[in-house]
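Notebook entry, structure prediction.
Reason for the run: the old model in the group folder had no record of what sequence produced it. Starting over properly, with the input documented here first.
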Amino acid sequence: MFRVESEESGRRYRLAIAGLLVLSVAAFFVTVWVMVDFLREQEIVHALIDQLPPDAALAAEELEGELRWQFRLSILVVLNLVVTALAVVLLSRAYGTSQASLRDIKAKASDILSSMDLAVITTDRAGIVTSINRRGIELLALDGDYVGRTVSELTDQIPLEEFRQNAQAESRDVKPQDYSLTDGGTSRVLRTFCQPMKNFELEDIGSIIQLREVTERVLMEERLRRMERYMGLGSLAAGLHHEIKNPLAALSLHVQLLEEELDDSEVTDDVLQMLSVIKTEVTRIGSVLENFRDFASMARLNTGTVDLAALIERQVRLIAPQANQQHIEVHVDCDADLPPIDSDRVRLEQVLLNLLVNSMEAMPDGGTLTVRAGRKNSSNGTSVSIRVIDTGPGIAESIRDRIFDPYFTTRSQGTGMGLALCDKIMRQHDGSLEFQLTENETVFEMTLPIG
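New structure, fully documented this time:
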């Protein structure tokens, strides 16, 4: 906590010191002038004493003595003025030294704030921005000088003023809040803190707002939560598959035998319809069991060198007839230097095809489907990113946290295992599958490590 002197206050101090110095010099010259007069008067009195009779000379000598004492007092005044002037000079030098120290402290504080990976914004009690460091300008993508403007003008995507007012009303640190910020099609998560700013006397003089980018941390926390949900589900799925498969096979066999027996006799249409329902449901249960098996399977990947551009082209050709039928424009944008990766081609095709089909189902009345692939640089190194982008209605906020959960689906004909299996396949490749929403697009991103 620094007690910083304002520029106006510093100017007043400098003027006061200069005024004292001027007054000291003026008093010095006035005193010297008076001393010169004393010397002249002493000379006049001494000359009069020589011309006065003896009886009057005694009074003149007393007057001469008083003049000498006044002259000595004037010398003392001169010495005091000299000492005062020296004190003022020393005070001025001390003030200059303190100002230099203060400038050094402010420069160091500014350097520290500029070097921090944390955006720091200070405001007064009215919410007017008094300072913002370099990281704050970068995170909020500011292109001008916002000092002196309200904090609400910094961005319209984060309610900083409302957050600041809540912190000010509670007079203490409020719970951090995470906000999404979209810039150039890229969504970032900023964790926002706010605390009161106090002066040297511990009086509230404003607020300190801090912003930290936690996009990677939030993604990691989401992956950990997802893995916790998956924990134990694999072994449960394998057990269910084993326990249900054999009775289901026997049931399917006996239904088939029953149909053969009924072929030789006359049966009503109702009986045949009931048998058809049984066969359909047995087949559906078998499909669910296969999904269980696929999800629980921990078999090793059949890895090899995969040309991602060719893989994408094959899957796009596969969906082209359906896309044309639904009036969906498909665009492919792959970087020329897209490197080959070591992965399981069949499983990656499964993931990409699932994402493409989901995107087309989200645009039954037509739209634009874009597949974009390229290198991606992050704090964890360089990787390959495949993004599937559609212009459908997006994903409702109430279900966004559940779309990767097994058996969660919004479609009447879906099993809810598609995205869960895709996520597991990507994790088997030490990659990730994430999604983000922009104003007009839904983006699913496959990320795979290089090498």
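Summary: The chain has ten helices and twelve strands.
The old model has been moved to the deprecated folder.
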